[in-house]
Structure of Synaptophysin-like protein 1:
Amino acid sequence: NSNGGFLQRVCVFSIFAFATCGGYSGKTSINLTCRTGKNLTLNGDFSYPFRLNGVALGPLDPGLNCNNTWPSAVYLVGDFSSSAQFFVAFAVLVFLYTIAALILYLGYMHLYRGTGKLPMIDFIITVIISFLWLVSTSAWAKALVDIKASTGSNIVTEIKDCVSQPGFCHFNEIRSMGSLNVSVVVGFLNLILWAGNAWFVYKETHLHNPSSSASPNATSSSSPSGM
């Protein structure tokens, strides 16, 4: 069954979507050039759901705080948990739905074909899922751009102690966000798959071929004329 094969594919892609986003753990770091000539490295470890404003740059020994030129706690900027959690939660729900729908397609296709309501419900759900893939992936893609900006090379411009002391802070490195990029690509791929499948589901409904549902009435009405 073509719908069964489709569900198997999107089930895998849904797993990729929430696994690549929800399983990510990253790190960014900056170097401090102290007046004594000693360099210190501060790290910021962040992960899903990307509440960066709760991630402190450190640790920094109070006795090595560059002659009191660095505050005790400096945090990254931004909270992107809403977009990330929406994307992951939706991907998980789609995964669960595809498992249930796959059971219906493979084990109870006679019920699916034998009623006019199930194909229509399936079509409506498919359209809704396609739309929500667009919304959730777009929101997550925008959040990812902001995450990269908040943890990348311009991080030193967002820390007032770095801005007030030119040459004091230097961006060091950031862990690759390749898996997060993959999550966005997979999200849009899911959108394309679900939107494309909407046409095939639509052909199963009475909206595509209403004449087939009306033909029994036409036959019954024409029979008396042959009498």
The two ends are 44 Å apart (CA to CA).
